[in-house]
Amino acid sequence: xxxxxxxxxxxxxxxxxxxxxxxxxxxxxxxxxxxxxxxxxxxxxxxxxxxxxxxxxxxxxxxxxxxxxxxxxxxxxxxxxxxxxxxxxxxxxxxxxxxxxxxxxxxxxxxxxxxxxxxxxxxxxxxxxxxxxxxxxxxxxxxxxxxxxxxxxxxxxxxxxxxxxxxxxxxxxxxxxxxxxxxxxxxxxxxxxxxxxxxxxxxxxxxxxxxxxxxxxxxxxxxxxxxxxxxxxxxxxxxxxxxxxxxxxxxxxxxxxxxxxxxxxxxxxxxxxxxxxxxxxxxxxxxxxxxxxxxxxxxxxxxxxxxxxxxxxxxxxxxxxxxxxxxxxxxx
Amino acid sequence: xxxxxxxxxxxxxxxxxxxxxxxxxxxxxxxxxxxxxxxxxxxxxxxxxxxxxxxxxxxxxxxxxxxxxxxxxxxxxxxxxxxxxxxxxxxxxxxxxxxxxxxxxxxxxxxxxxxxxxxxxxxxxxxxxxxxxxxxxxxxxxxxxxxxxxxxxxxxxxxxxxxxxxxxxxxxxxxxxxxxxxxxxxxxxxxxxxxxxxxxxxxxxxxxxxxxxxxxxxxxxxxxxxxxxxxxxxxxxxxxxxxxxxxxxxxxxxxxxxxxxxxxxxxxxxxxxxxxxxxxxxxxxxxxxxxxxxxxxxxxxxxxxxxxxxxxxxxxxxxxxxxxxxxxxxxxxxxxxxxxxxxxxxxxxxxxxxxxxxxxxxxxxxxxxxxxxxxxxxxxxxxxxxxxxx
Amino acid sequence: xxxxxxxxxxxxxxxxxxxxxxxxxxxxxxxxxxxxxxxxxxxxxxxxxxxxxxxxxxxxxxxxxxxxxxxxxxxxxxxxxxxxxxxxxxxxxxxxxxxxxxxxxxxxxxxxxxxxxxxxxxxxxxxxxxxxxxxxxxxxxxxxxxxxxxxxxxxxxxxxxxxxxxxxxxxxxxxxxxxxxxxxxxxxxxxxxxxxxxxxxxxxxxxxxxxxxxxxxxxxxxxxxxxxxxxxxxxxxxxxxxxxxxxxxxxxxxxxxxxxxxxxxxxxxxxxxxxxxxxxxxxxxxxxxxxxxxxxxxxxxxxxxxxxxxxxxxxxxxxxxxxxxxxxxxxxxxxxxxxxxxxxxxxxxxxxxxxxxxxxxxxxxxxxxxxxxxxxxxxxxxxxxxxxxxxxxxxxxxxxxxxxxxxxxxxxxxxxxxxxxxxxxxxxxxxxxxxxxxxxxxxxxxxxxxxxxxxxxxxxxxxxxxxxxxxxxxxxxxxxxxxxxxxxxxxxxxxxxxxxxxxxxxxxxxxxxx
Lengths: 332, 390, 514
Fold this sequence. Notes:
The complex is a heterotrimer.
Chain A: H1 2-20, E1 27-30, H2 40-55, E2 60-63, H3 69-80, E3 85-88, H4 93-99, E4 108-111, E5 120-125, H5 127-141, E6 146-153, H6 156-172, E7 177-184, H7 193-205, E8 210-214, H8 218-228, E9 232-237, E10 248-254, H9 256-266, E11 273-277, E12 284-286, H10 298-313, H11 321-324
Parallel strand pairs in A: 1-2, 1-3, 3-4, 4-5, 5-11, 6-7, 6-8, 8-9, 9-10
Antiparallel strand pairs in A: 10-12
Chain B: H1 6-31, H2 36-48, H3 51-76, H4 84-101, H5 107-136, H6 140-160, H7 185-189, H8 205-222, H9 224-234, H10 236-241, H11 246-273, H12 284-294, H13 299-323, H14 327-343, H15 345-363
Chain C: E1 8-17, E2 20-30, E3 35-40, H1 46-53, E4 61-66, E5 69-70, H2 76-81, E6 84-87, H3 99-104, H4 113-131, H5 146-159, E7 164-168, H6 176-191, E8 195-200, H7 203-209, E9 212-217, E10 220-226, H8 232-240, E11 258-268, E12 274-284, E13 288-292, H9 299-307, E14 313-318, E15 321-322, H10 331-336, E16 339-342, H11 346-350, H12 357-361, H13 379-392, H14 409-421, E17 427-431, H15 439-454, E18 458-462, H16 466-472, E19 475-480, E20 483-489, H17 495-502, H18 507-513
Parallel strand pairs in C: 3-8, 3-9, 6-7, 7-8, 13-18, 13-19, 16-17, 17-18
Antiparallel strand pairs in C: 1-2, 1-4, 4-5, 9-10, 11-12, 11-14, 14-15, 19-20
Helix pairs in contact in C: 14-15, 17-18
């Protein structure tokens, strides 16, 4: 045993020395879902990869597997000299608000939450605006007057999606019925295509003919089942139209990849403060490409683009669930 | 008299299992192009090489000790409590309620009050499946696992609505008031300029966990209730014959089990996050099953197994930091250890038993033709430690 | 005189399980057309030896010759091919299949059942006529009695063309009449040239039916006899290794005041079957009342009700005080009121096999002040108490730290008996006190029971061993189908009369027959 531990000790000190050199460049901390979650983590990963490929530089990364690692990972990267340190996910807001003042020289970027500190850039998205636009499309494409919404977990962020969607639907068809379901109550809900499929079938049974999935990896099952049953679906986060060409009505794109890419491109001099990514600056929007061109008629496109222009100009304000935690168009 | 000495049963067999798991993990690491020895070094030094490392390892271990003890106590009554996850979730809820809504003058009282609340809430969540088992024969494996989902759903509802401070995205309660903050290891062990356990989550709850180990040991092997629990676990028929009330044992055992699981929240919720987070238990309830199996339902074994799992968690994180080994690969390594120490336990145990049997036969050539003894399956609780060997 | 070639010859068979040498250098010759008894105490290695012969275990050393040819028997299929059939103590029948389906199970002629069934039906008919083995081929196994189930097992073996039939403790579950019938069948089989090996621990059966007998002790074959040339005492001595007293030495009882008064006891089980149909009897201090009967006729339920682990209706009075019989968790209350209970099944009731002896010695009494104060157990006191009791009841080895499962059957039973007798009860319930217990221990346990009686304890003895009932009891009640068929003074009855009662022949008829 003694010999073994001596050996291990030696190996350990070698390892520590290897890591001791001060690092530079950006670091990315992915949230618990992991960087291949088919959702916003993956979107962040794509942004980081785009930067790495374009610049030929590398970045450090860490995928959280436990809540206690949030602080650990932020501190670790800060102590090693990385800047900016980019993290996605609103659950990191509290740990970051405690740690950011300890490392005033380091720049932090948090996506999906606001942290009020001089060295933090907070990037938030107006998901309600993008959802409003796809809600309008859903209502216009629906023949039954019933549309569905499938969220991952019932959390405020997803309610924000649902609320914007419902407003868009009601704006086109005030009599429309909106069925909202959530996949589960544990993080497994973000990656449960089978359950997504079940919920889709249930909503079809209730008359829905367009279903909007805001449920991460679970959405793959929603889109698949919708295609199998010849109804329309709406993807989320990245452009998912290609998954089932001609059967995915559109996708509510949320450009987390752009947010990460821009932060990395700016490097250690990244501008701090709150950055709101909305319809106005193409942070959110609806996807139109060759895969869904046949589904979006000229009238539909005209109506949605008009609404988008109004939102961008401030003429039309979509209610944000987070402002008062109520929704005029949907009850939770 | 036994097939092998106790030290072999409790230490040698798990050690060989871990070595085997390590060997295969090494091959896996080699296959993804890293140096297994370097990886091992990083893992070990990252998990036990500094107070910083211990500050994380012991934090994780504390969670697992509580859930492991919860599963182990139930196991002694041959009840398979898969609900430690939900019970610990409820424990967190209990702590959040008393920490947020009761005024606490000092952290000692806050800790005491929180621990009582956590244990009561955890026990309450175990009580319903226990009652269904005792009165209706509904299988506790099914009911406790269902209650995990119910607990998660309930907490989800509370943390999106009533318990969430307005205006935040985070699915968590407001931070607990400073008077409820219990000492971390850093607070406890840093003197003057020397700061130990810097920025680590380990806290005084670790010592509560150690005390819980001793208490469980005392309960199981030194009290009449423990005797009855073990009797019931080994033979329901014999327990009934001995006048032991099955309903009472099922209820009491599950209440204790649920209470222990609930106490985990003293560590992760009161001690570390200082607010209640959705999914705060993070699977520790299930790790508790592996820990209890590996520790052969003995509190000391649970303690050691928890430390090992703490090392795996923290060391795994360090591997990811240092080598960028994907987290799925770390999961594979952790799973290999569970596989070898839990599921494949007999694969190691039987040859070791054979070796000891051979050695004994060599010493005593004329074997007494005693009746054959069956090897205890690993759901079987360990035999009593009150033997003179202790 | 040159013997013909033996049907079975074993040469130097050895088999060890870990450190335990179950069979040591065993040699045996079984002549064709004979009934060969193998006798030995529990754990002597009889079952291991037969399992080797039937291919369940492989011998470590030694060889098997069938009709003079060395034969490897790696599995039971090979045993069947070699013409060996086995009737186990615990039948291997599919409960919800018919007799016919059970008989062809595993030897269907093809994927289609119908032709196999038709063929089997004809063959079964022929066999039944030939050997007096009538069974309704379409009856469901769980609906027929154990005696018939045993016949199905024998038919199964014969259907598989067995020439050598091994029967493991076949009379354990049978009434005397059924046992007699079985023996007639065996003689028929013998007359047709079949070879039969009968494994038993009952000397009477050996004397009655076998031609030759081999005795096993501690894994070794210690003696071979021609049955006609030996005697029960000689066999007993060979089994145990020393002289044993086969008769119980006891003086006539001097019954005192009534201790137990049972009136109209009724039990209905979970399936709605009435297990006790109005049992009434009285038991006095200083008296042993034996309950005779074939297993499964309500004796177990009677013990459970009196022991407080089964609900019943009716009335039970202990020394004039009514006992609560409305619950099934009253074991502790019973002990506190002065009833001790040696249960029928020590392995699943009387002992916790994984517990050490000292923990078992406290079982059921663990709440008493002698074993600790408050919630705490006083381990030292428990261990000292166990050491003391084990010494006085000659438990071997007298090591209180050994797990109960490591003791032989007889020593396990001594632990239970020590615990219950030492509680100084007013009433001792004792079920199957010597089941699976070796002869030496039987002698000891019987002495303890009689001496407890002589100290004024009332004893209710339940046993399926008629010999035991006859030799220990002062009075005997016979149970059949949940009723007491009759009561006799032990001194004024015999096995024949009791046998009729056990078979359910009504008291009056039995009286006439007597």
